[in-house]
Request: fold
Amino acid sequence: MDLSAAPADMPSQHGAPVYELTHVSKTYARNQVVALEDVSLTLRHGSFSSVIGSSGCGKSTLLKIMAGLIPPSTGRVVLQDRPVRGPRRDIGMMFQQATLFPWRTTVENIVLPIEIRDGRAAAEKAKARAHDLLEVVGLSGFENVYPNELSGGMAQRASICRMLITEPAVLLLDEPFSALDELSRDMMNMELQRICNEKDATAFLVTHSIPEAVILSDDIYVMKPRPGRLAEIVTVDLPRPRTLEMMTTPKFGEIVAYIRGLLDREAEL
Amino acid sequence: MTDVNVAPARDDSEDTVWVEEVSFIDRVPRSVSMIFVFVVFIALWQLTHALALVSPIILPSPGETFGDMLFVGHNLLTGGYMLPALWITILEVIYGFALAIAIGFSLGVLVGETAFGERAIMPYLVAIDTMPKVAFAPLFVAWLGFGIESKVALAAFIATFPIVVGTAAGLHAADENARMLFKTMGASRMQTLIKMKLPAGLPQIFTGLKIGAVGVMAGAITGEFLGGGKGFGELIRVAASQLNTPRVFSLILYLSLVGLTLYALVTFAQRKIVFWHKERVGVSEH
Ligand SMILES: Nc1ncnc2c1ncn2[C@@H]1O[C@H](COP(=O)(O)OP(=O)(O)O)[C@@H](O)[C@H]1O
Ligand SMILES: [Mg+2]
Reply:
């Protein structure tokens, strides 16, 4: 296990770089808040990375910049060799709230990204793929149900399908399951791992749960607040596929304790 | 050894079934409650009449009013002289409402969707909205004459504002997550408006339409009172000037049927279109 502080731009293993951020800073013009300072990171193909840090330390800002929702103040953001200058098809994003639209059935919600980009006809054709995705997340039979009838966990599964329907290269996840109860969250995390594995996707997860970060990630970026910056990359070398049982192993506990130590130390400052 | 005794529950054979108490007034079925209030109302009316608390010229008896309602109903059903008058008022209401929806919705989108509309147009709309709008009636008559045009204009004028406000507020109803989601999907402004903001705002838009439906009725009748013409309001005015109060009462009741029908149509459309939004009015039935 490598618990030593790795240089911030040297993450572990995996394939070719997919996503590269170099010296990214963000100052919100409205209130002059420095939300991010000099963040550099590289996501490699097929890797799962998490970013963890106290609330308000700039995690969502980082994700929004990566998703092309807001521009950085300085720095470079490059995805698959093309700079990110706005939302892109090869980026899939998921938020804490499922945000399904109640006037659309589940399957209509899932093909919405296609409808927006390629029109109704393409969306109609994509429904077959939506059915397959619903099967993957265990929601077969709920295609034509309106979201009001779905539980929180089911809605979040459907929103995973909506994210995957455009077959994005990178998944950006902003605390996707933090509104769920702990049991469903564990299950959803295992499902997420399986999906990422199946689709060979590159994932970047924002979370405030240390065990969640450890059980899912290859690399964990620990952030410090005011101004938001990367403090350390922790590499998790638990074997894959991960199982929930691993959460009881001493190694898992060690990594969790180490990260908790990092975050506590920061809290004292 | 401690002497802890595992005593069996006393009446262990009984299910713990109990009924939550609902007070009598909440248990009465809707139809019974409504009939009850109606009967009490008529009884009080009859009593007031019988005791001659109010001059019979001012307040007719329920019986007289009912008799006159039969007369007016007969006149309307047999195509008597009141039918064209009612038809004129109905047309004013339909045209007025259609006009109010067209203008109100367009202005609402302009104000709710564009920064220009919100900054430059909304303040004027608020200013006009605070004016007593019926005071414009003489102006509409001067501009548009004594025909139905001036009544349509006043009806539309009154009904437009709630629709503007409902639409503009509705367009702000969608939450930050929905906006962000549409942004990540690369949606254009038009797509965001049509596929997200408008549907999300439909509940508020319909609230505006309902208030407008009430206003359009008031506008049409006020227009007829102040601008003459051949509508139902004119019949009421004439009956009132002749102190024919039973007629005034029965005409008002028929008129309210028109208003109720319009309101019911809007509510029906709302149920069909905004099927996902359950509006709760008052105490729910358990
Ligand atoms: N749109 C915004 N305008 C101004 N300041 C913002 C905005 N969004 C976030 N901030 C500020 O930037 C900092 C980081 O916020 P955020 O990225 O949401 O943190 P996190 O997701 O880690 O909780 C906070 O201090 C927050 O107040
Ligand atoms: Mg956040």
Observations:
- Chain A touches chain B through 23 residues (CB under 8 Å).
- Confidence is low (pLDDT under 50) at residues 1-12 of chain A.
- The two ends of chain A are 28 Å apart (CA to CA).
